[in-house]
Automatic annotation (TrEMBL):
<dbReference type="GO" id="GO:0019265">
    <property type="term" value="P:glycine biosynthetic process, by transamination of glyoxylate"/>
</dbReference>
<dbReference type="InterPro" id="IPR024169">
    <property type="entry name" value="SP_NH2Trfase/AEP_transaminase"/>
</dbReference>
<keyword id="KW-0032">Aminotransferase</keyword>
<dbReference type="GO" id="GO:0004760">
    <property type="term" value="F:L-serine-pyruvate transaminase activity"/>
</dbReference>
<comment type="similarity">
    <text>Belongs to the class-V pyridoxal-phosphate-dependent aminotransferase family.</text>
</comment>
<dbReference type="Pfam" id="PF00266">
    <property type="entry name" value="Aminotran_5"/>
</dbReference>
<dbReference type="GO" id="GO:0008453">
    <property type="term" value="F:alanine-glyoxylate transaminase activity"/>
</dbReference>
<protein>
    <submittedName>
        <fullName>Alanine--glyoxylate transaminase</fullName>
        <ecNumber>2.6.1.44</ecNumber>
    </submittedName>
</protein>
<feature type="domain" description="Aminotransferase class V">
    <location>
        <begin position="22"/>
        <end position="330"/>
    </location>
</feature>
<dbReference type="InterPro" id="IPR015422">
    <property type="entry name" value="PyrdxlP-dep_Trfase_small"/>
</dbReference>
<dbReference type="InterPro" id="IPR000192">
    <property type="entry name" value="Aminotrans_V_dom"/>
</dbReference>
<keyword id="KW-0663">Pyridoxal phosphate</keyword>
<dbReference type="InterPro" id="IPR015421">
    <property type="entry name" value="PyrdxlP-dep_Trfase_major"/>
</dbReference>
<dbReference type="InterPro" id="IPR015424">
    <property type="entry name" value="PyrdxlP-dep_Trfase"/>
</dbReference>
<keyword id="KW-0808">Transferase</keyword>
Amino acid sequence: MKINTDKLLMIPGPTMVPAEVLNAMALPIIGHRTAEFGELLVDTTEKMKKVFQTKNDTYIITGSGTAAMDMAILNVIDKGDKVLNIVNGNFGERFAKITLAHKGESIKLENEWGDIAEPEAVKELLDKHDDIKAVTVVHNETSTGVKNPIEEIGKIVKDYDALYIVDTVSSLGGDYVDVDKFNIDICVTGSQKCLAAPPGLSAITVSEKAWEVIEKTEKKSLYLDLREYKKRYDEKKQTPYTPAVSLIYALNVALDLVLEEGLENRFKRHEKLARATRAGLEAMGIELFAKERARSVTVTSAYLPEGVEDKEFRGLLSKKYNVVIAGGQAHLSGKIFRIGHMGTAKEVHILATLGAIEMALKDLGVKVEGSGVEAAKEILME
Ligand code: PLP
């Protein structure tokens, strides 16, 4: 089968992967029970800890972001335990589904999709139910292009017994995350977004407070039991089961690139690209979906212009102009589109995407007043 890889991938993950990261996967496989693999695992884990900004135990998991989300919940709850799931998008909802899958009681704090989760409402619920075992929140709601105030929520949760579980799948390495400063007990991420590694790996951090709970929780999974990962890592610097060795080669190089650029520089780059993307869309008369106070720096969501059909628009963008963007999820399908500007995204990618959007809309007969490229250029040249 011939796959067309000659397109600009501007979806909110998986993202484009640099050649040196891809090349790392061509190395021959080494045994995962060797000292050499142990060194690779420790080196990759230590780099991952730097990106998470944590001293907490950290594990690299062979399995996508959802595996780490599953792991975060199943290791800390028993049947009937209450979990406060903050929901303002598809991935917040996923944590609620995982809670139910493990027979927990999900107390959902529903917020408008497109706006932030309100920290005060979290406090009210924690005061109302004194037996909440954990609070889950998604830092960057990829489904809506919203960034939640995880630092503020962390300040609230730390005064309660509940564990603070945060999904940073589409923000870590692109937006400011400091696991220790934000009091995050369990933080999960994926390889394929801001870290610009291939999909297939995830990572999870575990605080002392979380370990105390985990030790008392009934074992519910063999593959995803955190105690197994801790034991193997502490005793042998290994993973309990065969890891995706080639993906770990790749993640190691991807993390080198992240740390070489520097976290601060990366946050600034993502923030600037986000502003340029928003300005470009607005200049073309396209309405942004996320509320101003809630906008993500790694993904921009916007309403499809009046009369524009999602499949036709994105199909044209991909087939004629070779730019791939994403559509909406759940009830937002057919209503919004999403542009990912994370990982290795640069100025030229934003300009190309905005230019292609303008051409595709014109092809579809939409009257595009201003120039998105011009508006974005102003910001990109700052
Ligand atoms: N959480 C967020 C915020 C995501 O964006 C995604 C994937 O898009 C996931 C979790 C799930 O990750 P995966 O698809 O790697 O299982």
